[in-house]
Amino acid sequence: FLLIITVFSGRAGVCLALAVFLAAVERSCGNNAYEPEEFLKREYSLTKPYQGLGSSTTSHWELMGNAMIMPEHVRLTPDLQSRQGAVWSRLPFYVRDWEIQVHFKIHGQGKKNLNGDGLALWLTKERMQIGPVFGNINYFTGLGIFVDTYPNEDKHQERSFPFISAMVGNGSVAYDHDRDGRNVDLGGCSASVRNVDYDTFLLIRYIRNTLTIMMDVEGKQEWKDCLEVPGVHMPQGYFFGASSVTGDLSDNHDLISFKLFELAVERTLEELENEEEVLIPSVDYRDIPVEVVDEGMGVLSIFFLFIFSVVGLVLLIVALLLIHQRWKDRSRKRFY
User: Fold this and answer.
1) CA 78 centroid distance within chain
2) What start and end residues bound the annotated signal peptide (predicted)?
3) Cis omega before residue 162 (within 30°)?
4) Residue 92 located in a structural domain
5) Which of 54, 103, 149, 238 has the greatest number of CB atoms lying within 10 Å of its CB?
């Protein structure tokens, strides 16, 4: 009797183990239908001890401005006023579907809303250029992801800062810093990423022309949705970068790791046949041209405007004198 129970128990255990195994396989297969296989691209990644970062021509990444390599991170800007720093990949990027996971830390001595300005992640045509948009140039061509820690525009209270947003630029659209980019951004989400005791991460995924941003900023080791924008068209051959800037207010902006994955995405024959080369970054739903902010006339324009104004004034005075002289001549003839 005990032998029979043992045999049946053994068979039940085997069956149970087999059922658990099959369920796991089925779950794995089901997940693969939604999660593409990914491959780490080390030449586009930046991790400790940051051996691929430096001024050597053989390095894959390059420092700029006040950025400096430290044992545990790359400090883009220190907690000091008026600093700019960045790291830029030297290699143009030619992967169709990709994902980056960024480990970063923002911290400093300033109190809330007395700190700034934030950091940005880039995939752009231009590289290694200093400017006003989180340390990069304005009117950029490509994709910018912004972690903005200071509200410059106080009129709108619907956003809580820090705020994560995205922008696609085509080289003719300006990021309006005074309005926190509200004129051009694609949306975003609030995220408490400053002066926290746990690690903070961003995930940016680009797959089938859809841009997705997720975040892990609560110390729970799980991704939460921030933004999803379909119809984003990005050319290839652009450069990845990360930058930061401080002004009158400051913070430490640290980049701990930047991991890039190539995603293996299956495409149908119809998708491949209808695929066209993208030359200029664009977003489908932005049918109306985005407002371009007038940053004022240059010195040369002001000079020519001044010259034309003086010439016009002189011509006007000469014309008035001629009219006055003719009127006097006619008055004399009538008198005689």
Assistant:
1) 20
2) 1-17
3) yes
4) yes
5) 149
Count how many domains the chain has: 1
Domain with residue 192: its CATH number is 2.60.120.200
Task: Give the Cα separation of 138 and 149 in Å (integer).
Answer: 19
**Sequence-distant (≥ 6) Cβ neighbours of residue 305 within 8 angstroms:** 297
pLDDT in tens, the chain (336 residues): 443 334 334 555 444 444 444 444 444 444 444 467 889 999 999 999 998 898 788 899 999 999 999 999 999 999 999 999 999 999 999 999 999 999 999 999 988 778 989 999 999 999 999 999 999 999 999 999 999 999 987 655 678 999 999 999 999 999 998 899 998 999 999 999 999 999 999 999 999 999 999 999 999 999 999 999 999 999 999 999 999 999 999 999 999 999 999 999 988 888 888 888 999 999 997 644 444 444 445 556 666 677 888 888 888 898 888 887 777 776 655 444
As beta bridge partners, residue 255 has 74, 104
**CB burial string 13-52: b at 16+ within 10 A, e below:** eeeeeeeeeeeeeeeeeeeeeeebebeebeebbbeeebeb
